[in-house]
Amino acid sequence: MKTLDIVIPFYNEEDCIEELFKRLLDVRKDLAVEGLETNFIFVNDGSVDGSSIIVENLARANKFIKLVNFSRNFGHEIAVTAGLDYSNGDYTAIIDSDLQDPPELLIEMYKKLKEGDYQVAYGKRLKRKSETAFKKVTAFIFYRLLNSLCETKLPTDTGDFRIITASVRESVKQLREHHRFMRGLLTWVGFKSVPVYYNRDERIAGTTKYSPLSLIKLALTAITELSTTPLKLIWWLAGIMALLSIIMIVLGKNLYSVILFAGFVPTFALGLTTAYIGRIYDETRNRPLYIVDKTFNLD
Ligand code: UDP
Ligand code: MG
Fold first, then answer.
1. What is the pLDDT of residue 127?
2. d(CA 67, CA 73)
3. What is the mean pLDDT of the chain?
4. Mutation pick for ligand 1 pocket among 99, 209, 210, 218 (CB with most ligand atoms within 8 Å)
5. CA of 48 to the centre of ligand 1 (A)
6. How far apart, in whole angstroms, are the C-alpha atoms of residue 70 and residue 63?
7. Alpha helices per DSSP H over the chain
8. Closest-lying ligand 1 atom to the alpha carbon of residue 12
């Protein structure tokens, strides 16, 4: 029998966990009909409410429920990372614990993967019920800005909610950078992906764990994880200064030309320095140079 591990990070979600568990249990039954054995890997990201006790009791009663308890709050991205590390099934799913991602969609995702043409089935949001206009607008701008800056193109309106095959999971496990944006890493490794559309529900209880400030931090992590393009903007600045300096000479305004040239020299030096910094950054992350999907006659 093939196996699926559902990774569920949670942080202070005591009012969501029981309802989530109920719905996941129904999904587990439906997936069994599809010939799949499902485990739940809960990752407690340093909760200080009763959620960990609830999951602990569930885990005591059911062997298919696994629990990883962090020593403190390490953040959502790290919690998902740990879930993938502990997963060893044929498939791995990632889902939020506040029921914003409908667990029932996992069945449709699995059916897409089962056909064998794809290695990733990801949830793509159609509508976001009751999220603030601010969140919707910033999310809209964020995805488009990210894709214009970065070589790795993220699918728009997509979160971590997805099922991946073991080969995708093992590839992502090789990426050990500390500042992590999982969606970026999951996309960077490649493989064939297929969207499954859904309307994003409201949180069933509690409040979002992301403040506007932590969303800005996450956006910065995403951009720096996927691209060194912002560093290259310095070259543009140097280029514009050099060009303006020449134009000023042509116009006979020598003083302006000297001032602009005086600005150009350090900017150029900075551009050169950051070119090396960008390379140091790429090397220290120690990412694999390539990810292999399949080989033939090589094992
Ligand atoms: N979460 C986590 N650690 C954190 C923050 C959030 O494990 O430090 C979990 C949270 O319990 C939820 C998921 O990550 O299951 C998404 O968080 P949230 O719903 O607050 O984010 P939003 O949906 O508002 O973007
Ligand atoms: Mg949420």
1. 76
2. 15
3. 93
4. 209
5. 14
6. 20
7. 17-33, 51-61, 76-86, 105-114, 133-149, 166-173, 182-188, 212-226, 229-250, 254-285
8. 11
Superfamily name and number for 2-208+289-296: Spore Coat Polysaccharide Biosynthesis Protein SpsA; Chain A (3.90.550.10)
Burial class (CB in 10 A: 0-12, 13-18, 19+), 291: middle
Query: How far is ligand 2, taken at its centre, from the CA of residue 100, in Å?
Result: 6
In terms of residues, how long is the chain? 299
Q: Which ligand 1 atom lies nearest to the CA of residue 10? A: 11
Q: What is the DSSP letter of 237?
A: H
Atom number in ligand 1 closest to CA 11? 11
Q: What is the pLDDT of residue 173?
A: 97
As given in the structure block, the two tokens for residue 210 are: 């992301």
Ligand 2 mean position to 189 CA, how many Å?
25
Q: What tens digit of pLDDT does each residue of 134-172 get?
A: 878 888 888 888 888 888 888 988 999 999 999 999 999
Dihedral sign (CA 195, 124, 109, 173): positive
Does residue 43 contact residue 68 with C-beta atoms inside 8 Å?
yes
Atom from ligand 1 closest to the CA of residue 9: 7
- Ligand 1 center to 44 CA (angstroms): 11
CB 159 within 8 A of CB 101: yes
Residues 6+ apart with CB under 8 A from 246: 257
